[in-house]
Amino acid sequence: MKIILNQDVVHLGEEGDIVEVKDGYARNYLLPTKTAVIYNKANAALFKSREAAIEKRKSEKRAASASLKERLDNVSLTIVVPAGESGKLFGSVTSAMVQAELQKLGFEIERKKIEVATHAIKMTGTYSVVVHLYENDLSHIKLSVMSEAEKLAADKAKAEAEAKAEAERKAAEEAAAAAAAETAEEATAEAEESAEAPAENN
User: Fold this and answer.
1) Orientation angle between helical segments 51-72 and 41-49, nearest 10 degrees
2) 141, 95, 90, 144: which is closest to 115 by C-alpha?
3) Where are the beta strands (DSSP E) in 106-197?
4) CB neighbourhood size of 133 (10 A)
5) Are 73 and 140 in contact (CB under 8 A)?
6) How many CB atoms neighbour CB 124 within 10 A?
7) 35 burial class (0-12, 13-18, 19+ CB within 10 angstroms)?
8) Contact predicate 75/128, CB 8 Å
9) CA-CA distance, 182 to 67, in Å (whole number)?
10) Residue 54 burial (CB < 10 Å; 0-12/13-18/19+)?
């Protein structure tokens, strides 16, 4: 069946696009939800009259998509899942899990736009998740899959590194303060010696 899309549909097309779909898909979903209308002369003319407005919305979506891609490309996610000692996962990483982690960071991404190769993620490790944005824009997010034991070890190592850095910072501050105090004492002593010198000459 030939239809005109009323709105963007992932993996199908964008608002205003004329596409061919299976009759069942059109009758059971696209038409009842008003996601699309049947292609005919009247509807084609209606969309033609709305062409400028549609193109303006597309332009705005492209700009928003470019901005979102720039932000998403810098995102790194960590998901902790049950795993055996060998690192083999007991379950699987799903797009819903990635969506939940992105929400925590303030990103509202539709689950169907998140592509997780669940068949490939069977072990702990680092993977790439694809997020489908507007048109052909794709963002690749770094995903670290860790077991509970690995997460505990990583947290402990991070805490130790932070404690060491804090201790080094304090030591540096104390050393700087001691050096400043010593310089101040030397300056005071020199000033006192200078003040006493004329008196001795007299």
Assistant:
1) 70
2) 95
3) 114-115, 125-132, 138-146
4) 20
5) yes
6) 22
7) middle
8) no
9) 53
10) middle
Given this model, what pLDDT does residue 197 score?
59
98's tokens: 């990635």
Identity of the amino acid at 53: A
What is the per-residue DSSP string for 56-84?
A: HHHHHHHHHHHHHHHHHTT-EEEEE--B-
Q: Please write the tens of the pLDDT for every residue from 132-181.
A: 888 778 899 999 888 877 677 676 778 778 888 888 888 888 888 888 88
Return the pLDDT at 19: 92
Residue pointed to by tokens 């899309």: 5
Residue 34 has a pLDDT of 92
**How much is the pLDDT for 118?**
66
Structural element, H or E, at residue 18: strand 18-20
Q: Tell me the three state secondary structure of residue 167.
A: helix
Phi, then psi, of 124 in degrees rounded to 5: -65, 155
The pLDDT assigned to 171 comes to 87
Q: What is the dihedral of CA 5, 9, 14, 16, to 10 degrees?
A: 10
User: Which residues of the chain are modeled with pLDDT < 50?
Assistant: 201-202
